[in-house]
Amino acid sequence: MVTRAIEAIMNFSVEVEREDDGRWIAEVLELPGVLVYGQTREEAIAKVQALALHVVADRLEHSEATPEFMSVSFIAA
After folding, report:
1. Three-state SS sequence of 19-73
2. For residue 10, what is the DSSP state?
3. Which contacts qualify for 29-35: CB closer than 8 Å, 24 or more apart?
4. Residue 66: its pLDDT value, please?
5. pLDDT 10s digit of each residue in the chain, 77 long?
6. Number of domains in the chain
7. How far is Cα 8 from Cα 14, in angstroms, rounded to an integer?
8. What CATH number has the domain bearing residue 42?
9. What is the domain extent for residue 68?
10. Which residues are bridge partners to 25 per DSSP?
11. Which of 5, 51, 74, 77 is 20 to 30 A from 13, alpha carbon to alpha carbon?
12. Residue 68: HSE in the Cβ half-sphere, 13 Å Cα cutoff
């Protein structure tokens, strides 16, 4: 029996904006509700990436997503 690995690449778009109060807000467009604030642009991006990975891991754990994810990348929108 030949087993073939399936590689799925998941690209997430990160949208970043600065609020009127100076805080930065970052959102992963493909994952509704994955939205965070940070004091700096870099902090907001790091936090939203971590949250997105938690959401994907949770979906995998609860069989809400296919386990073929091999590569995850973030693209600034």
Report:
1. CCCCCEEEEECCCCCCEEEECCHHHHHHHHHHHHHHHHHHHHHCCCCCCCEEEEE
2. E
3. 29/77, 31/55, 31/56
4. 62
5. 555 555 567 789 999 999 999 999 999 999 999 999 999 999 999 999 999 999 988 888 887 766 555 567 777 76
6. 1
7. 19
8. 3.30.160.250
9. 8-76
10. 17, 37
11. 5
12. 8
pLDDT for position 32: 93
The answer as to whether 18 is a domain residue is yes
In a domain, 50, yes or no: yes
Phi/psi of residue 59, each to 5°?
-65, -40
Strand order in the sheet with 35-38: 35-38, 24-28, 8-18, 69-76
Among residues 69, 29, 63, the alpha carbon closest in space to that of 48 is found at 29
Question: How many angstroms separate the CA atoms of 32 and 51, rounded?
Answer: 12
Assigned domain for 69 exists: yes
